[in-house]
Amino acid sequence: MNSNKPEINSPDTYKIKIEKMKMAAQDKLFLKDIAEVSEDYKYVDLEGWEE
Question: At the top level of its lineage, which domain of life is listed (predicted)?
Answer without folding.
Answer: Archaea
